[in-house]
## 1
Amino acid sequence: MENILADLILVVHFAWILFVILALPTALLLKLARLRIIHTVALIFTVIMQATKTLCPLTIIEEHLRREGSATFSYNGSFIITWLRKLIYIEDLGISLLVVYILTTIFLIFTFTSYLIWPISLDKKNR
């Protein structure tokens, strides 16, 4: 049961990453002010975790569930779960976490700049 919950947490973790990457372009394209604000808060939270070298709560929960599920913690998930794990824990693909941190910070700067370039409209239809 713990491994199934851990897989579910992994999928949620991947969805979080997709949200952080794709929400801003989606919000700008569709002119969704609330989505932009929620995305900005999510991105700030992510950058703070990276800057303070805090482990993501989803990572902590997933690893705890995996350890509870087997006495020897090793990853033996399905094909999809294996690749989701590789994408989430990017160092498995040989990409430096420093590169990820720098790109995330650049994305945060772009996000803040987007408020200057494309200000949020306060009319009712864009809320």
## 2
Amino acid sequence: MSCMEEAQRIAVAFIKKRKNPQIVEVSSVEERDGLWIVRGTCPIDLEGHPWREIFEIRLDKKGKIKSTDFSLL
């Protein structure tokens, strides 16, 4: 498994544990300034209405999550 795939796997597992979505869609994984940046979307239920939430997870080279950003699409 490549470092990029491992960063994606860690980010998806984090989102599934934190938000419990049915699906997590990763749109990009890039390396910048010594960090892996994983971006994508996941569905959420907001007071009975389906919404899409975008996310950005930043991980260091050891796989530790350094920051997260979630916002409604």
## 3
Amino acid sequence: MRIIVAILACALASCGPNLGTHRLVSARSASELPAAVSHSRHDPGYVVLTFDTNADINADNINALYAEARACDGSDAGRMTAFGPFTDTVAPQDLPLRGDRAAVSRYLVYLPVTGEVWGDRGKDGKTPVIGTFDLATNTQDICFNLEHTGYPAATRTGMVRVAALVLKRAIGAPAP
């Protein structure tokens, strides 16, 4: 009985590993995604955000990490595509790394400059487009977090707010 109670408590409390506190270090532009991304996107460029954390996001107990991005107003229409996290290296790799368990506390997230926002998959199996985004004309701050899956409930970091002006400067767009 104690084991069942412990499992239920863990499930309700999201007993995943501590992902720490995160902070934006820098933002810059890039023309391509890292080679570690295996698909054929042809976006007109990316904003590469570098984050620091006080946690090891390459630890043994971390098995799947995903970057999430959305307008800070929290609306579904404000969701954006985000790729990462990746190592902050010359040839960025997906985190966590499978063969190397060296501690990682700095990572990269790639955000397309423009893109479509997809809704939830409908009963017909199709995923509708519910909006678009363009960082060159965007006036809202963007909020980022990491999600760790692999537990009964996902563990998420706190949101990190990135000012719209920081994103505009990274891609060379005029400030409002």
